[in-house]
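Data availability excerpt. The first of two example chains:
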Amino acid sequence: MTMSAARRRLELALVPVKLPMAARIGESMSRRGTDVTAASAGRSCVVLAPHPDDETLGCGATVMRKIDGGAGVQVIVISDGATWPPWRTPEENIAVRDAELRASCRILGLADEAVTHLSFPETRLDSAGDSLVDAVADAVRSHTPDEVYVTSEADPHSDHAALARATKRALTGRAVRLLAYPVWQWERPRSWARTVAAASPAETVSTAGYLERKRQAVEVFSSQMSSALGGEKIQGLTPGFLGHFLAEREMFFPVAL
């Protein structure tokens, strides 16, 4: 057995332990986070998402609160979504996921012109270099938000971490708040530790009054749900994983610039 195969078997064996552990850690931090619901509602923002659906999972209720509070919101999704699900052609995936993104954002209350979908290749953001940094810098310069939301450098997904690094580079020295929202940390206990080490203690925004609309917006991403093909289980968004984003609060970690 190769080392990579052995490591894969070990990781699979640890899943039943890692998932509940990661959930307990995240839920504990969320409960102990500082509630900034009222203050957040009045601050304009740009939400940066590595893939179509991350913006809704991580920030859906916060986006709705800001819109209702009269604050400007722009959503910018970076990658084209070409690689998932694997049984469709890249062209089909790009079209389907863009349609899902826009339908979901309409449910959140965003006008079409407030949603920008860029075309960086999915799964390759870690090699995008200065072009990704420049795209983020241009977006923030164009909209001058009070806050920028992005995934964390500690997220185990390489696209998520790459976008976080590029965003920090793009915003260093700017008068804007940078906040990281967790996604795949909910499955990786060690990623929570790295998330905390890279940021200030958690802030939270209540989902009260917005949870059902957020649920509807999440359900639009049907192409990303866990499924089966030819008897084989295909990875995707599972009900258990989605439950972390359909809870009482959304959680964010302020990142120093």
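And the second chain:
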Amino acid sequence: MGELSPRTHLDWLESEAIYILREVAAECERPVLLFSGGKDSVVLLRLAEKAFRPGRFPFPLMHIDTGHNFEEVIQFRDRRVAELGENLIVRSVEDSIARGTVVLRKQNDSRNAAQAVTLLEAIEEFGFDACIGGARRDEEKARAKERVFSFRNEFGQWDPKGQRPELWNLFNTRVYPGENMRVFPISNWTELDVWQYIARENLALPSIYYAHDRQVVQRQGLLVPVTPLTPPREGETPQLRKVRFRTVGDISCTCPVASTASTPLEIIAETAVTTITERGATRLDDQTSEASMEQRKKEGYF
């Protein structure tokens, strides 16, 4: 018999994430996996397949739709869910606006932070006690303060000073009615790890993750896509640039980066040398400070 191949760092990360997913399924009564069609949630779906196939997932999928998503991402989301044959729950910020629980200053304002309200409403509607998401600690500094199992009180709020210890990967999942956990199985992954896993597993993604031609304008040091929601401002001249998106979200605040990378391997090469965080390079609403993101998370943002 030949020797077994040594385990790679991706093997270790995969095993940890599968263990966490199975722990959620075993310990929590009504978990849900948040799936937006973005690359991190695509990786989560692959990990869930490895954790639970050939059976069905022991939880539904859910997307909190801002109504300002890129069409390519929504089409991919629906296609991927249909391929898996799983149940997708969609709850919309538009409905929260209609109920009056979300109030925007302007119709075209970013709805990124407003997702927190719709998420909390969905958690109460279905009685979810654990929401599984694809947040990673390297996205920005506020996320790096959270544990893998991040406790939320009955108001959906997070207290960074009151987190539960996770020594030896022992997770305390106990919650009272109305409380819940946010669970991050890929918390210890980096953007580079995610792309290496996508390449290894040959995972399909929305096309906008790869280099394509798009009209953009320069604003606040970022490339802002020209769309009906984000038209050029006075003095701005649209340019046709070759770009890709490192992350996808609300059109009003999500920006691409200049890139010619059209394959996972080319993106891996770019990611390995970048010095700017994913959100720092692509989110208009994250340009202010770490404190603003932390405050949003305390109020229920994922």
